[in-house]
């Protein structure tokens, strides 16, 4: 309305100033694969920039290839020969005439040589200058620069410690608590946390002897021990003023985004991230942002980057490192600030300076609401996060729609039928929720995860669900120790009795709806009680009796049976094409995933991240089931099975060898990783069941132990 | 006094007999409709001759009938029933209860008794003779069944036991309903000698007569040894129960004396042996309850008889024009990369539901029942996941028998082809791959039901011809754009043609010519090269048109399939 009233001239001014329709580049190549390509392409399309994808033969049918305007194959599946093949990528840049390159994250994104080559081709690099990549890429050098810039770093003693007295002295200088650790250390061995002089005196000789024992190197180091730290990071977008070169460091425009809390990690791999953090006070945030700015100016940083910190519960913060790329978790920063970081990168690289929506008065980008991201990986949290491969079938993403100010966003690199291969990072997608409050953002996320159907590979969506529903997470207590402390030896989501009762009613309803939809006469005639078994044929039994249209009576049967309970049934909506049922009971809506039945009638269901096979039985079937024997489990104690799909590289033992517990037996390669399979017991190798070089599936028998001589055993 | 007591007793048992027995008893009512006898009887003074009083005689008979029925219902008695339960098995009647829709079973020959008088059998009476027979509804459709009762003389087969089985099959053929046999028998009733053997043969003959007329299914739920195995062997499908069932011609003891092999019952004839090694059985299930549930599911796919109209048709709840873009991604371009054809099938058939036949046998070929637009189809697919999808002896046998079942019962065939050829090797040649492969070729050629074929990737050599090719009168043949239809892979072909010279260039040339479906399409060997995502829509469309398909019969007694 307003714009139509403006004069033609002023309209032109405004559009050029704030709604510039001139694309910053004509064609952008993304030297990456998967979701980040699609993420960058999306912004490019909005800005009218043509897009180029590169891909390996293994990715020829991947969604990102189809999403690009042009796509060029750069080599075979192995990343070293395709995505990391600098020469080929440069040739594609020349052939397609791309005038800018976005490196994404991983692959060549922090490769200074690649950046150099791009720039010498006269093509714009959508990232920081080579010098910044080099400065921040080296951990020691980056700390030196940070220290010089006045950024607080983890206090420690640079040299090795030679005596107990020196150790005490250094510890006092650093301030307790301190960590006395082996210089060659790792894995917690030769490492002692000390809170006072006495403890240092006790720890010193023990750490020294452990260091000697485990690493044959008894040199020790001392550094500050940070208790219960949080991993917190600040997104920045830096630019010289529009059109101008940077003359002095202070001219660099630095926009700092509200922090991202990325403490929920498994093996240093982030799983759940949120913005802002529940930990930081406004004061700390301001102090940290100032140091971020100091660091960026010191290194002359341009484009998007991230400064990572450790923060303890007393709001002390210590610089860790700076990532010179757009990070995986950037969408949560976009969510709380409402800007497009990729657009910012394009503008900055085009020499236009910061886009208008990034032009702010203060240092920290104004924000509102709360955003959470879960990274969904094709890996098995129940098997030590081993990667899992195979076709995604079925694979159905939750509806990425919003209500009011809240929304669910899905940045995905895969699609139903896509085969997860062992060649690349196993991340499937990022699911991002945004809402005015943290509580609402959690609710949107858990609902999204409930609806997210991922079958065909093992994945961590249920673990994410468990994290988000955990009381400690809901309270905002999320130090890096979250997973080991709250969900150690996680064995899947366990439902409470009340939840199980609700699930049983839901399954009964779904079963009835499904059978009538498929015109399959039910096992249980209408209005007769049915028995729902959660966990399959021998699972817990719940008798469900449908009352009138609006209620059901459920009772857990068996030895640990419970009182009957009446549950109000409000509505059920079952969508077999999405494998999801929305069941409203006691006025609470829940999304339940339902897979197809097998030939014996068992169907896999999932509620709240807990998944199990379920079976609906008639009363008579249930009565007669009591006579059925629980199947004998195959005794696998004398076998070694492949923990994952992969290739058997080599055997370290031969038939007839005697092995001890923990002895290396063979090497299985999966996802480019060589995994050592160790002996679960002491014994004699009976048979090597597969040849070297064989491709293995999960649980395939690799080695069988021989029958022990009874005399030997005795 | 005496009279009153007697009457009271009799009336009670009569009432009991009429109300507690859930089985129809025509004779009871009939006798009461004879007014003359009743009139006469009432005129006789009771004191004179109580035993010959017709009214009393009737009542007494009622009592006896009731006792017989009670005995029939209890089978071999509570002790033996408990023993059966302790084994993890159900009784013959419990099984029928689970097989049929609630309260729909109607028993036949409940009172049938053996006629053996030797070896003390004359003094033994067990109504029903160790087998329960009758008919009922499965998912609302009529099905005949017999269920051998192991608690009654070990479910052994006597002359009369066999007659009950024969009667059930005879009736099923008359009305056109499937027969399902629940086998749990110790074998021949030795006391009867040759009468028992004759009984077996009568059953075999009836199995053969019924073959191709009504579907016959056997479920082995206990022992099935010796001659007994051959009745199931002649039915269309055999299913077994894990751990509690076994089948063999001779048991471990005989094996030990004859060949000196030590083998357990399970290792000789357990469900794992027959579903994965011998191929005798078509599937196994965890226990009795699960097996019977699965049978209900299977029957839901099958027609009642060879009458085309009896094919079950469900409302089309899965849209026929549903696109399946996933399937293209499921099939790797590299002809040497494996994938699971079941995933492809799952996307194309209604609701992804496939009832697999012989899932544990010859994994290189998939056979199973599914629906397209609500109509039952038989699906066959080469599975590159096992042996690269090659045809071998086991795969040929598995698929050939399945194709013949479908053809016999008017079930259209949908074939998915990705076959690199026949499996080479001495084991295969010595085993007679020529003869066995010919069975599949024969079965496909002979089949006159609608045949729709889709080549997803490789179709090489003779195996291309075998897999429901156009040349075998398939009705609709399609290839995906990535298909390769050739005598062999480009590399192998070039080696023969050019004797190792300039291999790379020639391979590329051969590949450009034949590593695509263009030549086949130009010749009309495929009707079209289709976009994979249209596969479901096109198959549904063809099957709809082909529902009226008729093939002229060539007059002959019967063909001579190379057995």
Task: Describe the protein in words.
Chain B: Residues 58-314 form the CoA carboxyltransferase N-terminal domain. Chain B: Belongs to the AccD/PCCB family. Chain B: InterPro entries: AccD/PCCB (IPR051047), AcCoA_carboxyl_beta (IPR034733), ClpP/crotonase-like_dom_sf (IPR029045), COA_CT_C (IPR011763), COA_CT_N (IPR011762). The complex is a heterodimer of chains A (714) and B (563). With 714 residues, chain A is of the alpha+beta class. Chain A has six domains: 12-126, Rossmann fold; 139-154 and 229-367, ATP-grasp fold, B domain (D-amino Acid Aminotransferase, Chain A, domain 1, 2-Layer Sandwich); 164-224, ATP-grasp fold, A domain (Dna Ligase, domain 1), CATH 3.30.1490; 369-488, D-amino Acid Aminotransferase, Chain A, domain 1 (2-Layer Sandwich); 497-625, Glycoprotein, Type 4 Pilin; 639-713, OB fold (Dihydrolipoamide Acetyltransferase, E2P). Helix content of chain A is 28%, strand content 31%. In chain A, strands 9, 10, 11, 12, 13, 14, 15, 20, 21 and 23 form a ten-stranded antiparallel sheet that branches. An eight-stranded antiparallel β-barrel of chain A has the order 25-26-27-28-29-30-31-32. In chain A, a hairpin with an 8-residue loop joins strand 27 and strand 28. Chain B is an alpha/beta fold and 563 residues long. Chain B folds into three domains: 2-73, no CATH class; 75-299, Alpha-Beta Complex (2-enoyl-CoA Hydratase, Chain A, domain 1), CATH 3.90.226.10; 315-482 and 517-546, 2-enoyl-CoA Hydratase, Chain A, domain 1, CATH 3.90.226.10. Helices cover 42% and strands 16% of the residues of chain B. In chain B, strands 10, 11, 12, 13, 14, 15, 16 and 17 form an eight-stranded mixed sheet that branches. In chain B, strand 14, helix 19 and strand 15 form a beta-alpha-beta unit. In chain B, helix 16 packs parallel to helix 18. Chain B is elongated and about 110 Å long. Mean pLDDT of chain B is 90; it is low at 1-41.
